[in-house]
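Box 3.1 A note on notation
Throughout this textbook, protein chains are presented in two layers. The first layer is the amino acid sequence; the second is a token string describing backbone geometry. Keep the layers aligned when reading.
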Amino acid sequence: PLRTTNGEVSEEDVWNQLRQCYDPEIPVNIVDLGLVYDCRLIKKDDGGARVEVKMTLTAPGCGMGPAIAHDAQSKILSIDGVDEADVQLVWDPPWNQNMISEAGRMKLGMI
């Protein structure tokens, strides 16, 4: 498992793991693509943590959607201290290119 810096899971740990997930057709991670709409870290009474993510895809018909969501879930669960991860695909608001970060735009040659 991915060891956390101080033994406590942080939201930053989760975002860093999500930056390791890629849409296979685009060489930019799902965070910089603007696909992750919401990420919540919920500390549980038993000391563990649950992560809830809402993300979308570049197109609703993208056949890789379940694979990308599963990859995100697996990477989140690899964080030491996270024992539950729920990754939901959502379509509202619809994704558009304005959601791509500056770093993502640079990688795609848009700026």
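The domain at 11-94 is CATH 3.30.300.130 (GMP Synthetase; Chain A, domain 3). The chain is about 25% helix and 20% strand.
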